[in-house]
Hints:
Number of domains: 1
Helix content: over 70%
CATH topology: Serine Threonine Protein Phosphatase 5, Tetratricopeptide repeat
Number of helices: 6
CATH architecture: Alpha Horseshoe
Structural class: mainly alpha
Amino acid sequence: MDRIAMLTEIVTANPADSFARYGLAMEYSKAGQIEQALTEFKTLIEKNPDYTPAYFMAAQALAAASRVDEAKRWLVDGISSARRTGNNHAQSEMTAMLEELG
Length: 102
């Protein structure tokens, strides 16, 4: 069974499993399936708005797909999440990426 199928089973059985949903989004992203990845990232953020890495990874996937405006929106929201949770490292990484994107 491939990773996407395995993680889909886990998420189906336990929709509140943020770690599995994040993993599923990352697998979709690695496979170049950006829309599916974004669907999972959005669902994750709806259920757990302070899952800060999701914002950064969604922004990276969007930037790689030349969807810069969308990536910037995810970064702005991610920076807010990082501030709320005191995640200074993530905040600085996302701020730097936002500046690079212009």
